[in-house]
Amino acid sequence: MPMVNLSLIILVLPLISFLFQIFFGKRLEHKKGEWISIALVLTTLLLAIIMFAQMLFDYQPDFRQEASINWVNLGQFQIEMGVLVDNITIIMLVVVALISSLVHLYSVEYMKNDVRYSRYFGFLGIFTFSMYGITIANNLFMIYCFWELVGLSSYLLIGHWWEKKSAADAGKKAFIVNRIGDIGMFMGMMVVATVAGTFNYQVLFERIASGAWAAGVQGLFGGVDPNTLLTWAGVLIFMGAIGKSAQFPLHVWLPDAMEGPTPVSALIHAATMVAAGVYLTVRIFPLLTPDAMAFVALIGGFTAFFAATIAITQNDLKKVLAYSTVSQLGYMIMALGTGAYVAGFFHLVTHAMFKALLFLASGSVIHMMHHSLTKLNDHHTDAQDMRNMGGLRSKMPITYAVFFIASLSISGIPLFSGFLSKDAILAGTWSYAAHIHDGWLAQAHLGWILPFFGFGAALITAFYMFRLIFMTFHGEPKRKDIFAKMHESPKLMTIPLMVLGALSTFIFFTLPSFNPLGGKSWFQTLVKQPETVVPMGAFDSEGFAHGLHLAHYPAMYTSLIVAGVGIGLAVLIYILKEIDPAKMAQRLGILYRGSLNKWYMDEIYLNGIIRPFLKGCDAIAYFDMEIYDHYVIDGVGRRVKALATGTGIADDLVVDGAVNLVGIIFQWLGWTFKFVQTGKIQNYLIYVLIGVLMVYLINVF
Amino acid sequence: MSEVIFWVIWVLVVISAMIVAYSKNLIYSVFSLLATFVGVAAIYIFLNADFIAVTQIVIYVGGILVLLIFGIMLTNRIAVAKINQSSFQTSLGMVVVGAVFVILVITILGQSWPVLAESMDFDSTVGKIGTLLFGDYLILFEVASILLLGALIGAATLARKEL
Amino acid sequence: MNHLESYLILSALLFSLGLYTVITRKNGVAILMGIELILNAANINFVAFSKFVTHQVEGHLMAIFIIMLAAAEAAVALAIILNLYNDQGNINVDEADALKR
Amino acid sequence: MGAHLLTLVTFVPVIGAIIIVLIPREKLDAIRWTAVAATGIQFIIAFMILGKYNRLNPDIQLIEHYSWIPAFNIEYFMGIDGLSLPMVLLTPFISFLAIFSSWNIPKAQKGYFSLFLLLDAGMMGVFVSLDFFLFYIFWEVMLLPMYFLIGMWGGPKKEYAAIKFFLYTLFGSVLLLLGMLALYFSLEPHTFNLVMLRAAAPAISQTFLLGLNAGKVIFILLFVGFAIKVPIFPFHTWLPLAHVEAPTAISVILAGILLKMGTYGFLRVSFPVLPAATLWFALPLAILGLINIIYGAMAALAQKDLKKMVAYSSINHMGYVLLGMAAMTSAGMNGAVFQMFNHGTITAMLFMLVGVIYDRAHHRDIDGFGGLAAKVPIYAGVVALAWFAGLGLPGLSGFLSEALCFIGAFPVFTWITIFATLGIVLNAAYFLWSYQRMFFGPLNPKYENLAEINKRELWTLVPLAIVVIFLGIYPAPMLDLMSGTLNQLVDYVKTAGITAGF
């Protein structure tokens, strides 16, 4: 069966799961219906593994299958829907299917007592569906559609516990912030569609390479430099990735998204959906000009560093991981921006494994914490606050073990997957700084800022990850009562953890050679950096590759030292207690407070943008009804009415003026003698008498 | 003797009429009106108009006055012993009415009335009135009776509650 | 008692008092009484002129018609007053100023 | 029979109205089912028209052409093409469903349903007539029933709203009449026949009227006439009021069909007859579209009244139509007409849903709800679907039409389109915000006993939902119907507009 058909089956199965759960989920007995969803997802995993095996069997770096249909045909304008299967697609499919399946399994236990249990699995289904859609799309329009659907499922899942205002807010925030990024993406798509007349990646790249792009720009926007427009197109499409992958300045939604159930955080907000931005950047990589790449790299680098600084001070278990995710996504984006294409995508895969592991393991802790708190009838203590944990190592050995593996992996310690990808990224930034001279970043001699961000973030990452471990699993238990009730999570939760733990080691990624630095692994072979299609002043890939080779060992050693320093610091502070963290915080003062409060980004947005904007909206609504409608429209109405009355009087005067003159005179008289008219007969009688007397007097005199 | 009686009655009529006009209590007004009517009937006697005098007694005292009393009783609460009535525009009315009265008096006194030398003495006016009424004034009489009938029906209709 | 003027003055007095009653009273029944006074004054005039000036009984006839008229008027007026009472709760004519409104 | 489908589809509701008038007022069910039957038959006939329509032929089809008032060259001329067919399908569809959502109208049902059917006939007549005079008559016929339907069965301020609607639209009609007569007298031969007008029209840009270019003057006159119906920004204030005061079914009709008559008028009359003026006015039209999008969305964001919010969302959504059709590109024009259809179905859902909650809670204050999703999950689900359709989620029909409008407008009005894309975010903001305030958070104790959406209400919404989802996933059937005619229209306006010139 061709890969395309397989991928289409993979696409449709989770949708069936969604529809099934929405329409019939409630009618099935609890703990029955979800197995249908799980079976469907496991089927997709099986199919993905079949595809993967086929890929390894073929071992073709240039493997590629594509098929499309005409979705919208307006004669002069067409939109296609199509499937593109190449090695990247297959790897991504496996990652998504794997994490999704494990999360499905894990959720059975985790969400056991949830009121909307079936709906939860339905939403997982539509999420998986949309994620597959993003993965197999062969054009920008289709990826945009699924992009939005992913946003929808994220909205639904973050807001799963919508009774909590914070959860409902977080869902809305995620959707809207993502949409802001999507505007950019949509504009980029419009540029592409207008100039190149297609959404299809391959056709688009061909047209750019062949000069049709330049001609199109000339025809439509004469005077605009085609290369500038291409840069803009790239940057605009990348804006979608900024939103979805939570890059600065649109990162604010991801930490809030932790309001959703923890398996959801693992699936969507750590492993797959947020990686969609990276995946998109991977897909459009060939059209990025050096300027656009510099932008991408700077955004990614800054985000990596920026988010890491926030993660240091957070006390909420999931918040630390959330900022860590933002930071790691920044790494991937930076890698792509520096031209380390393979490293970026590689980090996506390894990160998906160990970050999903981290989230699921923390979910295991939180689940048990919650359990204990429920038993203690304590509804006030925060089950996610690390300050209530400590010493859990002995109670939850499996969780502790896999958490430790994942932390080593994310910190970039050899023999773990993170080391491979992270090292490649850092080497990439080093090479970029040293050997690349194109793009405004390099031309401004700011290239070295990227390695600085990279290594700085690596240091901080190692520190905060071990801070997390030490606070949670080591030391004295801070709450003895909770501690007493803690125990290891059930099997259905620990098995996925162990699977992911295994996948966080280096073995699976360096096959067939076990040399992690050899560059002969299947991944390095099958994922090939595509040729850039930028016509003029293209990115210097050869120089970069050369630099990469040179930078490899220095970067590796530096990163090892940096990770060691980070871990060492954490040991010093939290195990040996040589340094008091409270004193440190006091000494750092403003830096500490800034970090703790996420550098006040939310407050800046709220007070700087959202509130004034809402005020503006209120003003507009007020203007519309109370001022414009009331004074202008109704005012016109009133004027016209007055005018009509006036005209009526004037008309009467002209037409039967004489009669009306008499009338008016008598009206005046009447008005004058109005006071005489009392309506009392006796008054009238006395007037009559007075009249009689006057007549008499006149007669007499 | 009859001269004295005449003037006594004259004064009585005027006083009772003044009470009618000025009394604050409506009941007093009605009863002085009775006195006025009776007094006027007596004046008719002095004017040799026996039939008119009797008619005056029968219709005014027996009919109209009873009607008036009924009117008062129907439109005021019986429990209120003193049925007050108020006036307005009294000073203006006084002036105007006074002026009218003065003019009337001036006219009456300033006029030389063509009074016949010997006053006519009637035996009885009833026969003459009857002859006239069923002779020259028959049509008028019939019209008057129709008027009365109309008034009767009209009054009865008007007085019904549901008009 | 044998002077026309004495009757005419009496009549003028009754007329003026009746007129005054009609002008100043608010009560409908009182106004009606004033009207009766005026009619009586007219009657006295008729009868007096009949005796002193014409020597005919036509004046008496007029008086009879006037009395009859008064009776009819009183009946109708009282019916109207009753209606007024039903309408506004009292019989004050100054409140019946619907003509103004 | 087959030859008179268009006459039939227009006058079937009139027959229904007459029958209703003859039914005694006590026989409520008979009245209702007559109305259902009338619109149902109309719907079936519309489908027969669809069956007879040849989608490969972009020209006018199913023509019915008779002389009516020969002295003035007024004709009884009906026909459909790819522009009017979607509207001909939409009108009986929405009317049919609106009958069900007005099932429990409180008083004078007889008058209500007969006026309703009269309104239906008027709207249908507008969409099928090809003689300007006939068009105008139907345009006016629809006005009066609407006035009574708002003014008699409306909310607390119904009289004000009704008179406002009436005066506003009457003002527009007067200008329309002026424009029509100006067109009639400035062209040789004097005719109201839109096909002949289109053929004769290029001459008009050389004609002068009171010293001004006749093409421009007539375009402006017609523009104001149609703009009030759309409604376009400075002429829009009747809409929120009329919507808020009108009963649910009438809001559905008003937003679902009536607003389309404005844009339909542009595409049927102004664009083909005055191509040069159209090109001259395209930029202002696009700017007005942008204002409609942003202004409508911002005003919607600030509303406390749910129905008012939906009403402003209509202003916002019609902005996309304006932007798309001003662009004069294939994608924009198709997107505009497709958006007209989609807005009809989506906004009908929105208003029906507002009506459902209003029937239960007796208020529409968004902040007055809260946590309803716990109590009425099915209703919350349907609202979510409609709300997401309204904010343009891919997979639901509104998305594609909006996207087409933007894509079509981008090469022509680049900056305007860039600003207009802000509408995408604002759409999401007001819909999601209102959804959150109504359905999320802790349950408002006042609505402990809120009843779930009942079968009748649900089944009036399901057909709309099916259409919305179907066209969202597979839009080709609808786009194929109209693309031929619309592409021809775009080409014609562009070439004729440039050759005629000023």
Structural class of chain A: mainly alpha
Structurally, the number of domains of chain C stands at 1
Q: Which fold name fills CATH's third level, the topology of chain C?
A: Helix Hairpins
What level of helicity do the residues of chain C show? Answer: over 70%
Q: Strand portion of chain C, in percent?
A: under 5%
Order of SSEs of chain C: HHH
Given the structure, what is the number of helices of chain A?
Answer: 29
Please give a structural write-up.
The complex is a heterotetramer of chains A (701), B (163), C (101) and D (502). Chain B has 2 domains: 1-87, Up-down Bundle (Four Helix Bundle (Hemerythrin (Met), subunit A)); 123-163. By secondary structure, chain B is an all-alpha fold. In chain B, helix 2 (26-46) runs antiparallel to helix 3. Chain B has helices at 2-22, 26-46, 50-75, 90-110, 125-133, 138-159. Chain C has a single domain (4-92), classed as Orthogonal Bundle (Helix Hairpins). The mean pLDDT of chain C is 83. Chain D is mainly alpha-helical. Chain D is 74% helix and 4% strand. In chain D, helix 7 packs across helix 10 (238-245) and helix 12 runs antiparallel to helix 13. Chains in contact: A-B, A-C, A-D, B-C.
List the topology elements.
The complex is a heterotetramer of chains A (701), B (163), C (101) and D (502).
Chain B: H1 2-22, H2 26-46, H3 50-75, H4 90-110, H5 125-133, H6 138-159
Chain C: H1 4-24, H2 28-54, H3 58-88
Helix pairs in contact in C: 1-2, 2-3
Chain D: H1 5-22, H2 28-52, E1 61-69, E2 74-80, H3 84-101, H4 109-128, H5 132-141, H6 143-153, H7 158-186, H8 194-200, E3 208-209, E4 212-213, H9 214-229, H10 238-245, H11 248-273, H12 275-302, H13 306-326, H14 330-361, H15 372-375, H16 377-390, H17 397-409, H18 414-420, H19 422-439, H20 455-473, H21 476-500
Antiparallel strand pairs in D: 1-2, 3-4
Helix pairs in contact in D: 1-2, 1-4, 2-3, 2-4, 3-4, 3-11, 3-14, 3-20, 4-5, 4-6, 4-11, 5-7, 6-7, 7-9, 7-10, 8-11, 9-11, 10-13, 11-13, 11-14, 12-13, 12-18, 12-19, 12-21, 13-14, 13-17, 13-19, 14-16, 14-17, 14-20, 14-21, 16-19, 16-20, 17-20
